[in-house]
Amino acid sequence: MKPTLFVLAAGMGSRYGGLKQLDGVGPHGETIMDYSIYDAVKSGFGKIVFVIRKDFEQDFREKILSKYQGHVPVDVVFQSIDDLPEGYTCPADRAKPWGTNHAVLMGKDAIREPFAVINADDFYGRNAFEVIAEELSRPHDRKGDYCMVGFRVGNTMTENGSVARGVCSTSPEGLLTGVVERTAISYDPDHNIVFTDENGTQQTLLPETPVSMNLWGFTPDYFDYSEREFKRFLDKDINTPKSEFFIPLCIDTLIKNGEATVKVLDTDSRWFGVTYAADRPGVVEKLAQLHAQGTYPDRLF
Questions:
Q1: Which of 45, 132, 205, 248 could form a disulfide with 193 if both were Cys (CB 3.0 to 4.6 A apart)?
Q2: Which pLDDT score is estimated for 21?
Q3: What pTM value is reported for the model?
Q4: ∠ CA(127), CA(277), CA(97), 5° rounding?
């Protein structure tokens, strides 16, 4: 059974100022998401599911989904702040979405096979999809048998400012033991990778330190765990306007409970994205080089 790629795209309309402004960074106006889908199909994924907001469904189908027809089966599910478990009501002053793991929950009725979760606007690279496709394609005979791609932090940096990354700790067996969100990782004047910890002390990260770029691999039982944990989250934080139910939050609970193991997969892929406006020319140049080298054909779709 081929795994499914689950693309978190519900924030697309707001982040890009509308789908018409979806940034084309490839030689023929390809978006970063186009490269992810091309790489995923090449690596063995058999279906793509997008989670979007209902209000831009028509635009999304016409401008985005149409280009993939004939290349890979696609499906769409919807995220709404009003989509809560029975017995819960969205507070009237809530404007912010409920977070990435709430978005994942929206795929419960559309996904029946192992699946990978990605952000719509991050470039992950072919090897990242190859390693997670291979892991998701093996037999899974127990619940909570998950994985994630651990990018080497040195392959995820920008020269134009700081980045936020989930810094991973692992066991000797290569299993995830924790993810700590570091919101301001940057280069120091000597080009060391540094961040400031909770005590105000500057810490250094080795370039090969694994970090999460939100490329996770799950089996369908993750939906049941997520539903349970989302209810617990709502019981505690439903009236906190900016609280969000993030994937690492749920994963951390499952690991601590002994209900899940998460294998950290290494990749030599180099992440890039447009974190800052100054990043865009570099992204355009890198993609042009990948086309010139033959990594990508002249036109993806």
A1: 205
A2: 60
A3: 0.93
A4: 75
